[in-house]
């Protein structure tokens, strides 16, 4: 594959025509492929089918004899569920709660409580201290951003570096603005770049001076156990690091079993300092008598312990690795050497992050969609849906079957070639 920038204009026109023909032929196949959201495939969901028969008509009693068909009244969830998931979040069991079916709901609700009531260490509610801002490492998770957008919280992008956010930028911003109350972090196998925050990044986030005494890290460890290699990334312990630096109340740690068992029908996890946990508990217990204990019981029976979780995640890995490899192979086949795109080779998580020529991502997504590949909206990985460089595209290879994953990647690669050759030609014409 020639480097497109180095082609003479006539050759580039020929290349553009040829790529266009291949794209048209692909389109004519009338495929319907889905690379939108990071959903598990049916084959992955089947791994947890035993949940559908649990806890069973004679297994609905909790460890302490409590009847899980009835109100039990502890908003922190079943003790055995807390004990099971505490090590997944790296928290003591008495500093965590297991909630309902969505960790996003927990994040949303804790933000609402902070806006309305304030958090421990705060002198007033966040909304009384408006304007409120959150730092957003980019590219990031669109649903984090939209929670804030819904409440008028300003989103301030911070570049990711490959080992977490650019800490020089973060430290400068949080030290200078008491309106910065929070920061979104997906610290392990980040969505979508798959990077894991380095020990130094974690240490600096724990130690940094914030102008806001009521600043919180929204530490969404959604991919804590979602390895794609046999060399799992190790993430430093944010709870311990913050406590060591005298900022025990800084981290709100979240987790989820949406991509362990059933998506949107699993469990949400939250761990934090005792003061934060008491605060969350107080507000959550006004909202609900308690989470779905039967679902917690089923999960305890299926997963048992961290070894059980690891064994299940290993089976997910067997299904996922070939899909990620297929995308890598197809991208390499079509794009290597053309100098038109860079993509990640994730070691965990659910996404491949594709960076195309600045100014081209929108066009690539349009072309891919025309070719039958449903993609997440361009810009979705940035606050307000606006990628200032128009270059990042999130590829989600987990949901379709393996052959479709390869076809979708081919549709995207052809779209990259068409969009890039078009863009270079347009640029040359505007200069001539
Ligand atoms: N956080 C991140 C980073 C995610 O990628 C996702 C999507 N699976 C979620 C949270 C959603 O989790 P839940 O289903 O528990 O709301």
TrEMBL record:
Record GO terms (molecular function): DNA binding
Segments forming a coiled coil: none
Highest taxon of the lineage: Bacteria
Keyword hit for DNA-binding: yes
InterPro entries hit by this protein: AspAT_Ic, PyrdxlP-dep_Trfase, PyrdxlP-dep_Trfase_major, PyrdxlP-dep_Trfase_small
Keywords, sorted A to Z: DNA-binding
Any Pfam family: Asp_aminotransf
Name recorded for this polypeptide: DNA-binding transcriptional MocR family regulator
Organism: Inquilinus ginsengisoli
